[in-house]
């Protein structure tokens, strides 16, 4: 388990143009500079956003890697859910799932409350 | 000059990059509150805006994570995120190196802060600036509290950081405005993105706006994580503003949970005098 290095690579990819270029053209050598397990390497290369999430990659780092890999927002959220279905609960870090009805149901509930008689009393 | 303005606001990226997915009936009053806070900052005569942020691995990473950092440059750049993703054009943002240096020197009398001569603003600063100073014509001094990579900055130190910024700013000849930007409860960038604990938020805001120091400092991260999510760790930015306005109370300009923005959207000010 070398979550630190997975996150470090993704952090660099997120912020550094040169690292992104090397990722495109010199990927093997770039990855060799980070202490990664085979599972982590494969998750980065595939990319398996769901597995990276389960491994514990911080969402503030992962969402940008997903963006770089052309994931739309809803697809990114779904990829993480799929990761949990496939690999089980998040193993590390602070980004575990907690149970949530979803934005649509939540919006519906808030709308009902806002329009309910007595609001503002 | 004594600090001329203090406030807090939300900074979630969805506020800008998922704007069209929110109900305009809630979104527009929120944007209006942001803009009015921008007007109030300008009306205060502020010459520089200190933004206490909770940055998300844009500049600081676990290879060398400061508990506190303050920017010290004549200009910054942002957003660090893909501008197409962030839906904010990448640009230079003015800073003031000389003023930063004097502010930092003052802060360091009380709190050991790191300083940074380079800083790329992430959504944590760019989203507030997008509304508050849309012409990017006010010098910004970024400040950061580690709210992301545990071990996190203790709450009482965040409060002390706010006090230190206040003392340092008061002692400068320039007029300084201060804002803190953070979530309150939220679960950003997780499958639970959109979850908001409104009751917890309102309770926290009550403690914040009444500047109840003991109550603010009695939160703990284990409880916060359970009930307010990892995004709740960003209360440190509000607590720093409470420290900077110790003994004063505030006014809530806007609060509504907007799930597609993934946060209870907040704009509030604190009295400074």
What helical percentage do the residues of chain A reach? 55-70%
CATH superfamily of chain A: Dioxygenase LigAB, LigA subunit
**What percentage of the residues of chain A does DSSP assign to strands (E)?**
under 5%
Alpha-beta content class of chain B: alpha/beta
Number of helices of chain A: 8
Q: Give the overall average pLDDT of chain A.
A: 92
CATH class of chain B: Alpha Beta
Please report the two chains with the greatest interface, counting residues with C-beta closer than 8 angstroms to the partner's C-beta: A-B, 34 and 34 residues
> How is the biggest beta sheet of chain A arranged?
none
The named CATH superfamily of chain B:
LigB-like
CATH topology of chain A: Protocatechuate 4,5-dioxygenase, Chain A
Strand fraction of chain B: 15-25%
Termini Cα gap of chain B: 12 Å
| Discrete helix count of chain B | 10
Rg of chain A (C-alpha, Å): 18 Å
Please give a structural write-up.
The complex is a heterodimer of chains A (121) and B (273). In chain A, helix 1 (3-15) crosses helix 2 and helix 1 (3-15) packs across helix 6 (59-68). Chain A is elongated. The mean pLDDT of chain A is 92. Chain A contains eight helices and no strands. Chain A has one domain (3-115): Dioxygenase LigAB, LigA subunit (Protocatechuate 4,5-dioxygenase, Chain A). Chain A has 121 residues and is mainly α. Chain B is α/β, with parallel strands linked by helices and 273 residues long. Chain B has one domain (5-260): LigB-like (Protocatechuate 4,5-dioxygenase, Chain B). Chain B has helices spanning 14-17, 24-43, 83-86, 97-107, 123-132, 155-170, 198-209, 213-217, 221-228, 235-244; strands at residues 5-9, 48-53, 68-71, 75-78, 91-94, 114-116, 139-145, 176-181, 250-258, 263-270. In chain B, the strands form two sheets. Chain B has an eight-stranded mixed beta sheet with strand order 6-3-7-2-8-1-10-9, sandwiched between helices. Chain B is globular and about 45 Å long. Classes of the chains: A mainly alpha (121), B alpha/beta (273). At the A-B interface, helix 1, helix 6, helix 7 and helix 8 of A face loops of B.
């Amino acid at each position: 388990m070398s979550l630190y290095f997975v996150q470090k690579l993704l952090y660099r990819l997120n912020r550094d143009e040169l690292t992104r270029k090397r990722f495109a053209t010199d990927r093997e050598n770039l990855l060799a500079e980070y202490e990664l397990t085979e599972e982590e390497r494969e998750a980065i290369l595939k990319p398996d956003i769901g597995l990276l999430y389960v491994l514990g990659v911080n969402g503030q780092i992962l969402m940008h890697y997903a963006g770089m890999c052309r994931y739309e927002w809803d697809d990114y959220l779904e990829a993480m859910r799929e990761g949990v279905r496939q690999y089980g609960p998040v193993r590390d870090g602070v980004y575990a799932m907690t149970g949530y009805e979803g934005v649509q149901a939540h919006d519906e509930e808030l709308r009902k409350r806002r329009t309910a008689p007595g609001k503002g009393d | 000059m004594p600090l001329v303005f203090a406030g807090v606001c939300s900074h979630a990226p969805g506020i800008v990059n998922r704007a069209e997915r929110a109900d305009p009936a809630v979104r527009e009053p929120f944007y209006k509150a942001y803009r009015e806070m921008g007007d109030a900052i300008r009306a205060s005569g502020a010459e520089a805006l200190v933004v206490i942020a909770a940055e998300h691995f844009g500049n600081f990473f676990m290879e060398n994570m400061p508990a506190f950092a303050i920017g010290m440059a004549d200009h910054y750049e942002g957003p660090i995120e893909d501008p197409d993703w962030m839906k904010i054009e990448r640009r230079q943002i003015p800073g003031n190196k000389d003023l930063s240096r004097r502010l930092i020197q003052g802060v360091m009398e009380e709190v050991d802060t790191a300083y940074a001569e380079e800083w790329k603003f992430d959504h944590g600063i760019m989203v507030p600036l997008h509304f508050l100073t849309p012409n990017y014509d006010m010098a910004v001094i970024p400040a950061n509290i580690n709210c992301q990579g545990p071990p996190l900055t203790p709450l009482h130190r965040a409060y002390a950081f706010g006090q230190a910024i206040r003392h340092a700013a008061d002692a400068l000849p320039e007029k300084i405005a201060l804002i803190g930007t953070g979530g309150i409860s939220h679960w950003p960038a997780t499958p639970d993105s959109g979850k908001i604990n409104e009751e917890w938020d309102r309770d926290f805001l009550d403690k914040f706006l009444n500047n109840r120091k003991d109550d603010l400092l009695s939160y703990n991260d284990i409880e916060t994580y359970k009930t307010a999510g990892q995004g709740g760790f960003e209360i440190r930015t509000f607590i720093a503003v409470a420290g900077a306005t110790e003994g004063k109370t505030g006014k809530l300009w806007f609060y509504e949970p907007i799930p597609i923005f993934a946060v209870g959207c907040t704009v509030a000010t604190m009295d400074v005098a």
